[in-house]
Design a protein that fits this description.
The protein has helices spanning 20-28, 48-53, 71-81, 100-111, 142-145, 160-163, 176-185, 212-226, 231-249; strands spanning 7-13, 35-41, 60-64, 86-89, 95-96, 115-124, 129-134, 156-159, 192-203. With 252 residues, the protein is an alpha/beta fold. It folds into 2 domains: 7-210, Spore Coat Polysaccharide Biosynthesis Protein SpsA, Chain A, CATH 3.90.550; 211-252. A hairpin with a 4-residue loop joins β6 and β7.
């Protein structure tokens, strides 16, 4: 087991036995190899744990939770143990291309940046192309992030040596990843972009985030409760977020 990994990968897993092996294969295929990977199983009731255990790679560290905490808590448990300078995330149903880790890490080092994310491909749950590639937008600032969040957990990497470990707010229902990036961009000038697609985001039929009607209320709460904006400003930004959802997915 490598005691000095340069990159720490965090995954929250819950009932992903239909997808997790493809995710594991994509991480094992990375051209860059000095990493550790915390897979935090959030009390799955399917075969996820057995599938993860079947992979014999000492860089993979499986943590099993006794009851379901939710993705934010699960990720934070992995984050607390992470030793790597560079922090990145992959969900248990998504896929990296082999050059993701090396490309993102080299970008941060060579350009003296704190955070980078890349473009990605959007496939359905059977890995068939579903939507056009999502092309990463450069120089995402805190102010820009208020309109919507183009940065996925899947292709974002940050330098914890520069900005510290950024934990995920556990009191922001359904929008915890967005709240985390807000906290990051309060600390740094901007997030940089790699326009080359470096991953596949799997859009599942039961995806909660795909149904904008269901999460509009939670998005409003980010502005109103988490950021403590005024009611008019919270409504304004929620409407802008909804309009940007039309551009991102072609539907609300």
């Amino acid at each position: 087991m490598n005691s000095n990994p340069e990159i720490s990968i965090i995954t929250a897993c819950y009932n992903s036995d239909n997808y997790i092996m493809k995710t594991i294969e994509s991480v094992l295929a990375q051209e860059y190899t000095n990493w550790e990977w915390f897979i935090v199983d959030d009390n799955s009731s399917d075969n996820s744990v057995n599938l993860i255990k079947s992979v014999t790679d000492k860089r993979i560290k499986l943590l099993k939770l006794d009851f379901n905490h939710g993705a934010a808590k699960a990720r934070n448990i992995g984050l607390k143990l992470a030793k790597g300078r560079f922090i990145t995330f992959i969900d248990s149903d998504d896929i990296w291309f082999p050059d993701f880790l090396i490309t993102a890490k080299n970008f941060l080092v060579n350009n003296n940046e704190e955070l980078v994310y890349s473009s990605y491909k959007r496939y359905d749950e059977d890995l068939n192309p579903l939507l056009p590639d999502f092309i990463a937008e450069d120089n995402i600032t805190y102010k820009r992030l208020l309109n919507n969040c183009p940065m996925p957990m899947l292709t974002t990497m940050y330098d914890s040596q520069r900005i510290g470990k950024i934990f995920i707010p556990e009191d922001v229902p359904k929008r915890e990843d967005y709240a985390m990036w807000i906290n990051v961009l309060k600390k740094i000038p901007s997030a940089k972009a790699i326009t080359k697609p470096l991953a596949i985001y799997r859009i599942r039929n039961d995806s909660y985030s795909r149904n904008k009607f269901k999460i509009t209320y939670y998005q409003f709460l980010v502005y109103y409760k988490f950021l403590k904006l005024s009611l008019p400003k919270s409504i304004y930004y929620t409407l802008k977020w909804g309009l940007n959802g039309l551009k991102k997915y072609g539907k609300f």
